[in-house]
Structures are given as structure tokens and as C-alpha cells.
Amino acid sequence: MALDGVSFDVRAGELFGFVGSNGAGKTTTMRIVLGVLAADSGEVRFDGRPITAEVRTRIGYMPEERGLYPKMKVLDQLVYLAELHGMSNGRAHRSAENWVSRLGLAERRGDEVQKLSLGNQQRVQLAAALVHDPDVLVLDEPFSGLDPIAVDVMSEVLREKAATGVPVVFSSHQLDLVERLCDRIGIIRSGQLVACGTVDELTAEASSQLVVQAPEAQPGWADGLSGVHVLSDEPGKTVLELAPHADDQAVLKAALATGSVREFHRRRPSLTELFRTTVTGGNR
């Protein structure tokens, strides 16, 4: 079983991050949304109605494995794909030129795709998803292989599309980027959606963490404290996970017993830490 009762919504104008381990079911989910694969049960809806072939022409899809014609020139390919989505030739040319320029490909517009770097091929693939001015964007690992400047450009493009009301769902293993960009996040594990919400909502449900900087503390100083689990214990700095009943003042007292304490504060786990906890053991 690839997917088991997966259900979530992506709202108008929302950036939705879809994350999970390799093989968790992200790509299968996207292929079902696009109609590339048929589900055994359930349905995909857009604006409250089942998705039809006509609706699918209004979706911009960026596959993880590039679906471009390698020997076709960049601009010609984008024009062709826009026309397949119903654009007139003139409108397709204008849109293709716009996205070639917007994504920093103007000087490569006449090159064959196979002659581009992998990062530039990724830019062309994004342009192919955008060229027909879609009402929905579904992107599978859009940031894979991009340099930091290209990541910034793509991030800005996705924000701009969402600002116009377009729902954007994308998968990525770059969790710091997902945390920074997304309004909400869904975490899938072994074909099941195990968490869904904003970063604040998801991390608020996680165990509280405590950061303690005590330069004179020896490794193991927090061992044995009730309700306290040591996450990391580097020289002078310790990160602890506290159970709901744990007394942080008892932790402070133990830290002060080692000498001076320069830092002592609670923090919420990052999305990366939450992901590791939630997805441990996920398999494709």
C-alpha cells in the first residue's frame, strides 16, 4: 500500500509544504492529484468539485524527474507547452519570454535543454509549470540542485504566485526552507499523513526543550534529573528535552551547582527536529 487514507487541503493563496522521508508517498500523492495515477478510493477536489481533465489543464506541475525534451530549445519548448495548455501562439510567446527573463534564462533561451546545467534545467522546468498561468501549482522537489541565488529567485516566484490567490503545494527535503516559506505543512510517513498544521501549531505540540550554557559543567551533569532527557551535551552547552511534569528550576539548580550559567532558556524544536521525531522509521 503506497497511501493509506491521506487527506489534506491546500487553501487559496497558501504555500503548503509536503514533507516526508524518501518513499513516504509524496510523489505518489502528487501523481494522483494530477491524474497520472488512479487512486483505489477517494477523490481529489478543486473548488469543491471533483477534478476533471479540463481542470487539470489549469494545474502547473513540476515533476521531481525532469519531464523536458532534451534536444528542444528552451524558448521553443516553453511556447509549445503553453500552447498545449490552450494558449494562442502570441500569448504563449509573451508568457515564455516573461518567464525566461524572470528566471534568469534570457541568455540561454536559444540553447537545447540538454546543454544546460542541472540547475538551469530546473529553472526551465519551473518555467514550464508556470508558463500557462496556472490556477494551482504542484511542485515535486522544486529546489533540488539549485544554488542559493536560484533558491531565492524560486522562493520569490512562489510567494508572488501565492499572493495572487494560487494554491501552491510543494515537497522538499530542505526543511529550513519549508519552515521559512510555508503557511502550513503536512508530514507523511509510510503512506499516512501524521501531522498537518502551521509550524507554530506543530512545534507547540512537541516536547519543551531547554538550552543550558554552563561552561564548567562536565558531561552527564543532567543525568538523573526527573523528567529530563539529554538531546545533546557538548562542552559547555547542553540541550534538554523536558517532560510536562519536569521542574526547570531543578535543572537550573543542578546547572548552577557546576559553576556559572550563561544561558538558560526554553525553546521550541525546529521543523527539522520535529521531522526527525515524527518520521523515524518511515519507509517507502
Reconstruct the topology from this structure:
Blueprint lengths: L14 E6 L5 H9 L10 E2 L2 E2 L2 H4 L2 E4 L11 H11 L4 H14 L15 H13 L5 E5 L7 H16 L4 E4 L3 H7 L2 E6 L2 E6 L1 H6 L3 E6 L14 E7 L2 E6 L5 H9 L6 E5 L3 H9 L5
Parallel strand pairs: 1-6, 1-7, 4-5, 5-6
Antiparallel strand pairs: 2-3, 7-8, 9-11, 9-12, 10-11
Instruction: Tell me the major beta sheet.
Output: 6 strands, mixed
Q: Which CATH class of the largest domain applies here?
A: Alpha Beta
Name the overall outline.
elongated
> What's the rounded overall pLDDT mean?
90
CATH homologous group name of the largest domain:
P-loop containing nucleotide triphosphate hydrolases
The fraction of residues assigned to DSSP E strands is: 15-25%
Could you say what the CATH architecture of the largest domain is?
3-Layer(aba) Sandwich
Structural class: alpha/beta
Give me the Rg, rounded.
23 Å
Number of domains: 2
- Count of alpha/pi helices: 10
Helical content band: 25-40%
